[in-house]
Protein 1
Amino acid sequence: MNKLVFILFAGTLLAQDARKIVEESQKLHRSRSQQYEGVLEVYDTKGGKNEKRWQYARIGSYGESKSVLRFLAPPLVKGVALLVQNHPDRASDQWMWTPELNRDRRIALQDRSTRFFGTDFSFEDLEERDVDQSDYTLLGEEALNGQACYKIESVAKKSRTTQYSRVVIWVRKDILLPVQFEMFVKSELVKRLIHKRVEKVQNVWSTLELEMNDLKKKTRTVMKTEKLKYDVALPEEQFTLQALRRGE
Amino acid sequence: MILLRLISWQYTRKHLLRSWLTIAGIVLGVAVFVGMHTANQSVLTAFTQTVDRIAGATQLQISAGEAGFEEEILERVQNVPEVRVAVPVIEAVMNPQTKSQANILILAVDMTGDRSLRDYALESGDDSFIEDPLVFLAQPDSIMITREFAAENDLKSNSELTLNSMDGPKKFIVRGIMKSSGLTTAFGGNLAIMDVYAAQKIFGRGRRFDRIDVAVQEGLDPATVQVRLEKVLGSGFQVEPPSSRAKQFESLSSVYGMLANITSLFALFIGMFLIYNSFAIAVTQRRSEIGILRALGATRRQIQILFLAESAVGGLVGAGLGVVLGILIARGIAGSLGQFLGEVYGVAQKAEEVSSDPRLLVGAMVLGVVTSLIAAWIPARNAARVDPVQALQKGRFQLLTAGENRMRRWLAFGLLSFVGVSLAFGHGRLIFYAGYFSAIFAGVLLVPTLGLWLARGLRPILKAIWPVEGTLAADSLIQSPRRTSGAVTALALSVSLIIALGGMTQAAYASIEEWLRVALNPDMYLAPTQNFTDRSFRFPAELAAEVEKIPGVRRIQAVRIVRLPMDGEPVMFVSLDISSVSQEARLPIVSGDGPTMYRQAAAGKGVIISDNFALMHNRKLGDILTLATPSGPLEMPVLGVVVDFSDQKGSILLDRSVFEKHWKDTSANVIRIYLQPGVTVGQMRERIATQTGTRFRYFVFTNEDLRSYILRITDQWFGLTYIQIAVAVLVSILGIVNTLTVSITDRRRELGVLQAVGGLRRQIRGTIWLEAVLIGAIGLILGCGFGAVALYYALETSARDLSGMRLAYGYPFRTVLTLIPIILGSAFLASLAPAEAAVRGSLVEALEYE
């Protein structure tokens, strides 16, 4: 799960320290592969809740990984899958598979600012970004929930690849794990991502619950991670369009 | 102004009925002009609004005519750096099984990206919960409708909605209800959104899209990106702003616009003679008044301006009323006209509201006033020339002088000579139309002379039947040709218009029926919709292959019909197995050698063009056409020119293999089936159903069904000409009523004297009736003669500038036979009120008149 939020690392290398912190953080929480089952809880403005379950698998190093996300429930979305192929030098390729239609569709780069299936995440938020894709500035240090944190600003080098003008990241000083992101469009703060539950799994500090708040719509999405495993043996062929079509 | 109030207004008040009748021609002409154009404009506005509203933030639209294109194109467009958003679209109109039975416009998009372009404004205000986008995409039965459509059909979230798909009726689930917004008001609110990939299946598109909607990167000029995209995609694609779709529709329906112009201008032209007639009479009646004014010092110019000002005011009032009446007419016909144009051109729009263009209304007012001024010009000039001394004397003033008549005849002779020259040597448009107008003016100039001759010729007959009334009626016309010449001219012109339209209709029906007989001779057809012009649905290639194998099928022809741009105009491309066509149909060949033409076209070595395409696009046998295909420009020689009435804008026939190769499209709009001897359509219908089961949705049409369908569309098209006929007849009747009213007023003393010396009321009444019928008869005879010439010009105009279709000349005798009782009966009816007025007036007053 923690990998998921690294997508938000986008910025310019304005301070060597800031870049090093981010790079170190990525290294520390890197794994060859991972797998988990997630629960998505989308809360509307009236407090109503919509829940979806999914299965997630990922292989490859950070920034050039491949992942498959397949919905398990509710029945109406069961089998719908998303294949993400991340690239270190450019935005990821994404495909969606809809079993009822028996066909895949490519999700274009330009569409990734749209919301990820009604959640408060966008398709872009599912991408991993290599440290070199952004410039970083260390804004200072700040305590968050009693934990000392680095406050780093990240700005994407190619503005076309992101919807955000800048992202401010809080990275815990003790474990170098990002725990909060604030995303800005122009000067307006539009989203806040909070890592609510952080635990060590297989000796890797991992976020097991995070909450994305859409500050404009005043809605939030909670993502819970279950059955998280690192360095699982996953075949490469599982992360292809053909496998996606086969429902693997 | 003072003269207008003191003199003109008093005269108008005294002759109120006649004044109204005078301007009636203007009212009618302007009303027809405003009504037909406003209705057309409303249809166009409705289409434009639908395009605008569904375009949202779209700046450019990419299409390949109606043919669509393969999915891969989308990625090519999305990879252009200047493109911010590019989303695929399929658009179609369907008839859902709902309470309202109203057609619904389906806009199929890819919802993962489309919301960057369009605001769907979901009813709940929170699409993430109530309306689940993932479910919407995951389930192909998802549909989103407008609040208006939902309310009209008692639908709510998760309701079922049945739509006809290629797999038969299919139930959809309402998974979103859109709030009222710009988008939801498109197509009168009857709009539904579905997933584009689901739509591919439902509409039989395969892996193709209809178009791509594009928004460019911020700060970039769409025109620059347009050029870039055109370069990337090649000439087979059209990259245009959404507004250009409205222009294409305008271009398609331009024939209707021209017909509207012809009808209204003709009505105004006829109306002009009514005004001319009234003013000519008014000048003679008011000669003493003019004389007094002149004696008091009024200049000739002041007199002329007085009459022209009267006519301008009349024209203004008539045009104002015409505008109001026209808007009412437009309200009445906009809906059905929209439906008709939609059916003829297969274009989605819904015209429910009338939108009037202020420029059109101002133009109509100006047209009315100018027509009125032109009509009054000669009478006003004559009024200015009145000699004060002569004017104050009593006498006859309705006679045409011998000199005047001679001058008219010479002028007519000169014009007719020019007409002859233009017909013999003039192939250019300018000289042709100059000849046309010369013929009309020659006819108009000859009306008094010919009318006089006819009146003299008919006098003995009338005298033999009705010695008193007949003689009086004929003499009235002979002695006062100026009084009646306007009405006779208007009537003759109306009749000639009716003859021309009747002849054109008759020729069109004959030609279309013959074409249907020889060119469209399959025993039955399979079509994906009930409407042949609707190309929303398509059959996959497999269906044709399956049908071909069914026992009893002798031959099939899978036909793909698309409208594609050619020389900037949408042209119908008909792709089918040319070899098969050559063996079954006998398309009348205009130029080219039949066997060679078919052999080479079947081998994909060229195209066959329709006669009307050849005429309108100035192409001939051997010319090379450059077809813009999605695979690049394709140069094809014209192998032959044939008579083909598939489309008003012309058609290009090419072999299916060429279309499949260059457009990469194997689908079909229609499957033509030839049956083996002894197999009936009913039997084949059952066999197809057994063979294909419920896998395909199709409608079976017999040859007779298609014939009726085409003839029905033709009927609807010619329905417009019936409006012209009605206007022509109405204006003529007004002319007769006007003339008789004037005639009675003018002859009040004469009629009074007749009564005083023992003339019976019955005889007076009979005289007026006969006079009216005589005017009708003369107008009818002259009109029939003029009609013969008008028909020639109408057919030529149609071929040159309207449809490009060459229709055979055939004088419509049946129309003439129908017209005789209508015109004479109308003339008689028109005379009833004036005749009563003539006999009911006070004898003393009548004798004192003048």
Protein 2
Amino acid sequence: MRRFWKRPHRDPYRAEIERLVLECAPDARIIWNGPALRAEYVDRSMFDEVGQRLWDHRNRLVHNSQHTGGVSAEALNLANSWTLIEPEVLELERRERALNRAAARVATVFDLIELLVPRRIADEEIGDALELIGRLAAEGRPRWQIYLKAASATFFVLLNAVREVSSSLLGKKNKA
Amino acid sequence: MDIPITAKAALLQALIRGPSFGLDLIDRVRRQTSGRLSLNNGSVYPALRALEREGLVKSYEGETTPERGGRPRRYYKITGLGQKAATENRHAAGALFGFLAPEGA
């Protein structure tokens, strides 16, 4: 069963390219970015076959153009720019986006916590926690590790802020 | 098994190798002990501030980076008093575990 169902494109040139891709890779998701085709979920084993079909199509357009009254620049442009993406790469992209979103959410929470704690603690502890979370995200660690690290950092930032404020208040009281 | 050593003593030994900031100090201690000692974020910062209050380290603000949301790093540098305390710590621990002869022996 096809993963994505898509009505064929109204433009006959694009519809033809879509047909060529979908015949080899029926699960593919077709996305047009201007004249550039991006076919997602194409299995790696089909890359050569899809590539060959698109190349043959492009060659037919160029070499038969004398008999058909010339190929339009638009049609040639469409046949020239295409990218095939295998499911594994899409999964990596999805994970990276999810990790970046998690890191951005954590940064927003830290920005709010920053309002409650002394500046030195905010700069030092929240800054270090954000740097560490950025490293975890770059290493591709699971999201739960990022949220766990953020939760523990929040707990210690608040605890250390209370300690710091209470010790400075006690210090002032003792001096008085 | 946790190594029974205080965060302050470990940080002082790590700072002998040069100025650094909290996150890097945690890594440095882990590397220096081949992963046997892992300091907790929650204990490192209070320990560093306590060392500063005792005059064993000095701190200063460093560069701001986008990964830190524009917040500056706080670097710590060991003082002369800190160097002396770190050396004494090392001698005491060495003597205790039998690596070094006790001072004056």
